[in-house]
Amino acid sequence: SPGDYWLMSVGRQALLHVGSGGKIDELAIEALPKGALLAAVAIDGNEHAFVLNGYDNSVHRMGFNGRRLPRIKSDMAHPMVVDAAGRFFGMRMAGTADFKRLELVRWTPPVRVEVVGNFESDLEVNRIDVFGVDVRGNVYVVLGAGAIENPSRLEVVRFGPDGKISGRVACPPDPIELNF
Predict the structure, then answer these.
(1) Whether 93 contacts 75, CB under 8 Å
(2) Cβ proximity of 84 and 139 under 8 Å
(3) Residue 99: is it exposed, middle or buried by C-beta count within 10 angstroms (0-12/13-18/19+)?
């Protein structure tokens, strides 16, 4: 609801829900494997929380009531975001060695992975941060191109729900935690 937000406590291995009135509820993330690296959390529109374990690319799911749902695995070894329908979005190389062509991928668990958009650059892309999906279904990505230590182009790219690029804007030199 408006004014509520979710945090991930790596130390506690739990999600913290902070209500608009300031009440904090803690949901333990159960059955994490040894060496778990909690990388991201997302909430869908059906009262499910998703926690990405970057160590083994597993996604732990739970209801807001703390009830564990089956864990799912991904072969997409990079950060992902989830939309209100529980679909994950990420970026990957379009070929095996070409860092100039990327694909926007939508993963509908447990197995359906589909390419929904493409991105081409005249420079090699060395930074990819998929950071959000808005209520209209637009996916937002930070892309850096050029030298790794000092990208000559850093931009936020918006992909529309149809997978086509619908906006591009220059990004600050070192964006930290872009969020909605």
Answers:
(1) no
(2) no
(3) middle
